[in-house]
Amino acid sequence: MVCRRVRYNLLSANARRSGSLKMRSASLPRIADNLLDVSIYLYPSPHDAQTGENIGGSGFLVSLPAENEPGRSWVIAVTNRHVIEHGNPVVRTNSKDGKTYYYDFAETDWVFHKDQDLAACPIRVNETNQKYALIGKDSIMTREKAKEWELGPGDDTFLVGRFIHRDGGQTNVPTVRFGHIAQMPSIVEDPDSGRRNESFLIETRSIGGYSGSPVLVHKQPFDWRPSRKDVDTKYWGPALLGVDWGHSAQTEFVHDGGGRETQMYVHANTGLSLVIPGWRLLELLDSPEMAAGITDMIKGKGRGIHF
To answer: Phi, psi at residue 63, to the nearest 5°?
Structure first.
């Protein structure tokens, strides 16, 4: 049995009388402007961060509630482990007056997930002049929430990150790319590191530079849910589905002028992003190593902010 999701549209009077059903594709909802401010850029050095030179990676900011301190939270920068290990530990964000802030972090300032391609680092922010937004911990997807929301193929997603060809130069100008869930999580091995990352496949057309970007998911009114017999008119989200860590590639053999296949080949981007689920990020945020990193920041051992 083949099922497909449909989107319902209001019927005209003529359509109701004739019994015909007219439908149209619903456009994605307008996202809030401040969602762009969760994005951070990563660079090899402070000089690169100041000038906007050299391609590093993307990341985002998370709000982590402080244990035993109601009302207080820490700001955590999140990206991929491979972005940091490839020599891009310096973080850059925007200021409200059009300038930039950068953090002269070293690789040793970052905390890595034990087996997933994730990295995080507590940072201090300037609430007066720094332009930033945070993804709350309670907005990070859990296994339980995914089951409750009946997430599955076709659910709408978008990522916010660094499009390297138009990234803003000396200021962060993030780009939003839209897509949908193509496959629920399975294990995907990274051929470079050997890590076996739990990964959604997302039709979001990711390319180099988006590594570390947040991928968010939301449900529009009238989207079909498998367990419901009636139409669900509620909107939920956006929630952090996970963290982009790469894109799926396939081997394409080169053909000669006569159209014959040669032994030469290239790796072609399939357009499918690989996204580590939010519940794996929660493992890192709740780890003893993350708590130790926060303690070091409180004691002043972390790197400072510059602008």
So the answer is: -95, 120
pLDDT tens column, 245-301: 986 655 666 777 877 778 775 655 667 899 999 999 999 999 999 999 999 888 876
Contact 61, 74 (CB under 8 A): no
Question: Hey, what amino acid is at 46?
Answer: P
Q: Structure pTM?
A: 0.83
Given a contact cutoff of 8 angstroms between Cβ atoms, the answer to whether 171 and 98 are in contact is: yes
State the number of CA atoms in the 13 A half-sphere of 300 facing the CB.
0
CATH architecture, range 37-306 = Beta Barrel (2.40)
Tokens coding 139: 């907005």
Tokens found for residue 295 = 């303690």
Q: What are the C-alpha distances in Å from 166 to residues 79, 132, 135, 161, 174?
A: 20, 20, 24, 11, 9
Using only C-alpha atoms, the chain has a radius of gyration, in whole angstroms, of: 21
Least confident of 40-44, 123-127, 172-176, 185-189: 172-176
Rounded to whole angstroms, the Cα distance separating 206 from 20 reads 39
